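Response regulator, pasting as requested.
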Amino acid sequence: MEHGGLVMVCDDTEPIRRLIRLNLELEGYDVEEATDGSQLLARLQERADSGLPLPGAITLDAQMLPRDGWWAIARIRSDPRLADIPVIMVTASVQQHDRTQATASGLDAFVAKPFDPEYLMRLVAGFVTGGRAHTPAP
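Structure tokens follow.
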């Protein structure tokens, strides 16, 4: 089933970006990549400033340099133009404190690496068609 729309993939590991991109493209999505949180935020803000369509979902790694996923999600959720974009953290950081931080930060889903690409595609499709699972914090 082809879905369509833009999904942004942010991960500092090229093979992970490639794996996610390939699966998204097979599902009919357009994909834009970023290698860290600051690059992702700059691309999102550029789209918002120029009136280009925002992504229907974002996949985001937690640990990246120089700006990590936690930094990026805090800025995404604090920008009213970006706050409603569903964000799925795809990360090897799966300790309890990471899961607690994920909930507190307003992430929509938390997926542990290694991950099942089919499961990730179902999550993306649900968010792209249904929007955010959580309401942004006031």
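Note for the archive: The chain has one domain: 6-129.
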